[in-house]
Amino acid sequence: MNQNRRIPVFEIENRIGAIQHRLKMADIEALFIVQRVDLLYFSGTAQHGFLFIPAEGKPLLLIKRYYPRAKAESPISDVVEIESVKETPAHIRDAYGRLPKTLAFELDVLPVNEFNFYQRLFPDTICVDGATNILETRMIKSEWEIAQLTRTAHLSARTFQYMRETIRPGLTEMEFAGMFEAFAKKYGHAGKLRLRDYQAEGYPWHVLSGSSGGRVGLLDSPASGEGTSPAFPVGAGDKKMAPNEPVMIDLALVLSGYHTDETRMFAIRSMPEEAMNASLAAIEVQNAVLEAVKPGISANRLFEIAIEKAHKGDLETGHDVFRRTQNGV
After folding, report:
1. What is the spatial distance between Cα 217 and Cα 230, in angstroms, rounded to a whole number?
2. What are 30's strand-pairing partners?
């Protein structure tokens, strides 16, 4: 494993300190991390295990598999190898003298059956939700994290430039997607997205050209030979890209665990006039939002600004115009 892919010691220490502060403010004695992404965020390893973070004192990392790698990756000093999660209460008692009276879990992602199991594992402990504390800690990005996002954005820009140089008529959407994904993977793109939602799939790219963009997610007629799979209605289909039609390409690029999500419009030779106008309108709305971005502003307010800009500039019909163009109207 490359050294530069590890999360620095100071980063883990700052994250532990931040979540401990939130636990104290919420009057929660400890947090029990189960989900793999949170485990990586707070411990530096994604090996199969659990992380116990007391509101005061050092965290305890309990690893079921694979201990040597977890020990090498994580800067946490107290790492214990276990054969079963049932051993955790005893290890917590050994490390801290007693079990906590209140213990927080990631209830936004933890399955009910698993949560019931942990409640039985800690029968005299009040089990509460710690998801809000985790999410509020994770949403504040450090300088190190911003640097990781910047690296990811640079690779995204390189990949979109590659698309611009290689897009051509006759390639199917799926063929073209394979080309630019292979390019990105040469430089470290992981190719997978993790989502904190049990109902959603983390799909990293889409290519929607011409009419297929208007039918994404719908069942195409068997004779059409176009569109996406009914079982997995995202990504790309076997429609061949053609000149003089809009081609929307969406790429979520992942580098060392950090991702950017970028969508751009392409056209081979020329863009239909109405679709071009809709694209220019979208740029105006985007620029208005970018001018308003500042620390403390809510995502909801940015959405409202986008709607206000569309109304003021008579741009709200741009989406309908684009949909009509995609469907050949």
Report:
1. 7
2. 54, 103
